[in-house]
Structures are given as C-alpha cells and as structure tokens.
Amino acid sequence: MLKNRGNKKIAAEFDAYYFTAKNFLKLSENLPNATLVDGTNLINWVRIIKSENELKCIKKAAKISEIAMQAAFDSIEIGGKQSDAVAAISHAQISGTDEFGGDYPAIIPLLPTGDKTSACHLTWTDEPFKQGDPVIIELSGCYQRYHSPLARTIILGIPDDRSKHIAEVVVEGINTTLDCIRPGMTCGEVELVWRKVIEKHGIIKDSRLGYSMGLNYPPDWGEHTASLREGDRTILQPNMTFHMIPGIWLDDFGIEISESFRVTEKGCEVLADFPRELLVKPNIRLA
Fold first, then answer.
1. What end-to-end distance do the CA atoms of the chain give, in Å?
2. Quick check: pTM over 0.85?
C-alpha cells in the first residue's frame, strides 16, 4: 500500500506535461507521511547519453526524416494546398522505409509559409502556395519513440539576393559549428562559434542554437536538459544527441536549415543525409 511508505522522500515530475494538480493531490492523499519533492527532468538527465540500441533507433528515425523531407520537397508546388503537402509528409513519416515503418512524431510537421516564416513553429493552412513563397519545413522521423528532427527552407521561384544571402550565412554558420564540435566542449561554447559567424555578417541572434533530443511523446521531442545556448555549461560527451536549429528570422521572412547530430569520440556525426542548402522549386541549384 502506498500509505505504508512511511516518511520517505519521493520525487515527482512537477513540471511534466501530464502531471496535473489533481495528480499531485492524489499522491499527497495516499502518501500522507512522505515528503514529495520536485524531480522534474531527473530521468531526462540520466538518459542524455544514448546507448548503442538507442542510437540505432535514432538513426532509423533519421532515415525516415530524409524520406519525409523529400516528400515535402516533391509535394510543395505553386498552386498546391499547404494541407496536401503536409498529408504527404505525414504519410512518409508513418510509412517509413521498405525495411521498417515509422511512429507518430512528438510534434506535427511545421510548415510556416510566406511572411509566416518570420516566426518559428507555425503550422499549415489550406491556402495554396504562391510564386515567390518561402516555405520552412521542420519535421522528424520517429522510430519506437526516438526522433531525429530535420528542417529545410524552400523558395518557390528564383530567390532574391536577400534570401540567398541569409541562407548562405545560415549554411556557413551550421557548417562551421558542426566542424568545431568536440567532446569536452560546453554547450555554451558551441553556441558561441555560431554567434561569431553570423555577427561577422551583422546579424545578432541571442536565442538558443539547439537542444538535446531523443525519445519522447507529444508535445515535444526535446529532452528539456542541455541547450546549445550562451551560459549552458553542460559538457558534451560521446553519444549525446542534439538538434541544431540555426535559423534566422527577420521581420517579414525567415530561413531555417537544421541538423540532428551525435557527439562522437572526436567530433560529431550528422544523422540525416539531405542537401544542406536553400532549396528551390523548380529544382535548380543556386551555385
């Protein structure tokens, strides 16, 4: 019986999404002699370093992310409905590969379009895509609840010089940052590399660059532990996994190109294989 637990100290995740006030009252009622303390994210910190079996699941999720991103690119067309593109993405996420299927991800596909790309985490409408629209796609494959998020930006038509410039800054920043990652660095030191790159181009961005991720349920695939942000002194260790989101959002549009990666013994391993560039429909290369 719970009531016979005596005067023990028991941790509960007070800030868990599904731990309600009624849950707390029930625990208190059934554990009258126990001391309930806040153990929020305690387990998340324990699981921040992934096992080999966990990494296998994350890499399968990364493969599904590649397939879903390709489905996004193929289905986003001038005149087509945003909702149809998301239906194609969702189908790819659940269908997975010929060898293994996908699970439902902790976050639905995100698809801000046009001037809505100036903000992150916006969803789709049933409006048609228009000539000149930027479209940000942020999604994740999911395999046995493990995730590997991925984001890219598409321009419908020939991008203007400003869009190309911002995309070039984002790609330079993410490439430089990924190249510098080593175990023993702090999360804050990783973010500083990115910040120095974009500051050379006159861009100031003081939000986080990324976060630890892995196994999770809705409404979030992040672990709510380590963040690639200024001041975070968490030390990178092999087999930690992160989603790096070096997006730049201006007043009227934004560019987001992200990668998920694993910290290795000597650097990092990018988990998905998808062109790391501003994508253009019709399918032409900018270089």
1. 69
2. yes
